[in-house]
Structure formats: structure tokens, C-alpha cells
Amino acid sequence: MNSEILNTEIQAFINKNLKADINTLLLKGIPFSTIDSKTLVAQIEAKKRCEKKLPTWYNSQQIYYPNKLNIEQTSSEATANYKANLVSGESLIDITGGFGVDTFYFSKQIKKVTHCEIDTELSQIVKHNYKKLKVNNIECLNENGIDALKRINQQFDWLYVDPSRRDNTQKKVFLLTDCEPNVKTFQGLFLKYSENVMVKTSPLLDLKATLSDLNHVKEIHIVALNNEVKELLWILERDYKDEVLVKSVNLRKETQQLFDFMITEESRNHALFSLPLTYLYEPNVSILKAGAFNTVSAKLNIPKLHQHSHLYTSKDLIDFPGRRFKIEKQIPFNKKSFAKEKISKANVTTRNFPLSVGDIRKKLKIKDGGSLYLFFTTNFNDEKLILICSKI
């Protein structure tokens, strides 16, 4: 950690050049002799990445940034805040601390939090930033989290682990057994020192396959941000043996879209089916990841268009965890029918349809954008159709 970065003039230079072209900046040269251009540019690039993802850090003074890979790997403030609202108690240990965004938010709910980070420089950076952010209930340990857990040898109300999804060559991995630490191997140790364990994993993991790797899973949280699945959270509780609750959430600027169900419900539930009615509904990505297709129909009493289309319809408008549309018109899928509509610009979506969005745009000469939404799909009679919709 180079303390010269915190020099007032250098900090001013960083803030002044956040929108500057990096190559131009390097060609022009850095007007400081106490710091090299590569280090300074790394600070500028890292801070730029935090503007929307980590606004608390971005808008605070004297913040020291790690390399941009650390920023890419860290949770956003929105997802960190969601996680923090799942925990309570006196103590929590984060054994894979990283840049410390999750730890920072946990500290708002927990009396004493321990941040473990094996990388010495990153641990120093996090400790410095917490001081600037005026956080005083987090202890930073420059130590392997598992070693720290054994050395401290005490019970924590919560243990949090976000295994590294990079191998020794920095290649991306996502399976539990390929990540570090290997949660499948160490889950017994984690539950020894904490009754409650939260594991953050890649959104790419298969839910059922991962459940066979983990014991005592009480809840699975599928967390999406602005309709993009960002992470899966696995809540383990010591000795828990009952059904697993799946909580799908789509975090949006003003609201949260929530849908909960027991993981065994999907196989027990049967979907209703109907031809398109007045309104059309498209589930958000967290529900699609959860695979709760029959359960959405059964719980909300709303029919699907087809077993594999994953679009729903109703006569009366309902609250729905996803996008809602008014069906203005429906036509069969063929060039002649579509030509009569004289549509040259629209938003195109396919569900259970043989052509891709790109192929459809090319075939029917549709430009992207506008206020119309076209759904190319299949109904339960296996008829290909186009639903011309307006967004609600």
C-alpha cells in the first residue's frame, strides 16, 4: 500500500481525471515524482468502476482502491445490503473478506464483525478505508480465514464465506469443489464454530446439484439486481433437517420483487394453461433461475401459455414478480400476417420459439427499440404466434 496515493494533490488529480482517456493520460505523463503512472492509473480505473456499484466508497474522501479485479469480484452495495438484512446477533466472522463491502454492511446489523483477508496489502487497504468510512466495530485480520477461525476458537453468531472463483492461473471457476476455500470440504468446520453459515456462490451453480454437496441447508436466496442474477446465497443452520425454502428476489431501484417457495413444491404443483388473455407476464430472472414455473402458476392462480414457454396470462391485471404487459393483439407467425401490422421497430423477446431474436429481426426487418413489445412464442396447442404488447 503506497501512502503517497493519499496525498491531497494526487487525490485531486485522480478525481479530476475520472472521465479522462487513460491512453491520453499516459502519453501526457503523470506530474508526480513520488508515484509511478501505472499505480496512479490503476487507482483511477478502480475508482471509476465504483461509481454505481459502490457509491459509498466512490463519494467518500481518501479512499484507497485495490486492483480492478478486486472491484469486479466484490459485491455491489445493493446486494451487500440485502445480505446484511438476513443476519442478526452479537458476532460475525467473514473468512474471505476481500475488499470488505459485505463486511461493511454486516457491521450495520452485528455488534462485532471480524474481517479476514490473507492478502497483506488488501487487508491494509480495507482497514484504512474502514477508518475513513468511520466504522469502528470491524476487526481486520491479515490471516487465512480458516486458520483464524481455528486460532480464535470461539462461537460466532454467523459465519460468512464467499469462496474465490479464480484458480491459480486466475481462470474463472464456479463449482464449489474448484473454489477456495472448498465449502464442501470445510462446511463441518464452519458449522462447528457458528450455528448459522451464509455461503455466497456463483449464479451459475445448479440448485439441486449443489444441495447434494451441502448439508443442513435451510434457505437458498437467488439474488438478482435489475433483472440480472448476481449471486446465490446458501443459508446453513447447524442440525437443520427440514425442507429448503427458496427465496427469489429481484432488487430494483425503488422496490424488490419477491417470490418464495419450498424447493419440493415445484414437483408437486401443476400449472394451469390458457390461450393468451388480456395481460401477459414474464417472470424475472431470479424465478427463471429457481425453475419455479409450475409453482408460479399454482401460487398466483395464473395460467401459462405452454409448459415450456414460461409466459403467463390473465384476464385481470395482477401484481407479478416480473414484467407486465397489455396484449394489444395476437397474430399467427408468418410474414404475411406480420406485414399487415406495418411494424418496423419494436422490442423483441422469444420464449419457446425455434428462431433467435437476431434471426427474427433479420427475417421480418424489425429494428430494435420503441414502445412496442413483440413476444414470439408457442401456445399450448403448439401454435407459433406473435403477441403485440405494450408495457405496463
From TrEMBL:
GO molecular function per UniProt: methyltransferase activity
GO BP terms, alphabetized: methylation
Keywords: Methyltransferase, Transferase
SUPFAM superfamilies noted in UniProt: S-adenosyl-L-methionine-dependent methyltransferases
Highest taxon of source: Bacteria
Domain THUMP-like residue range list: 322-391
Residues in PG-1098 ferredoxin-like domain copies: 279-321
Protein name: Putative methyltransferase
Pfam families: Cons_hypoth95 (PF03602), PG_1098_Fer (PF22013), Thump_like (PF18096)
Organism: Winogradskyella wandonensis
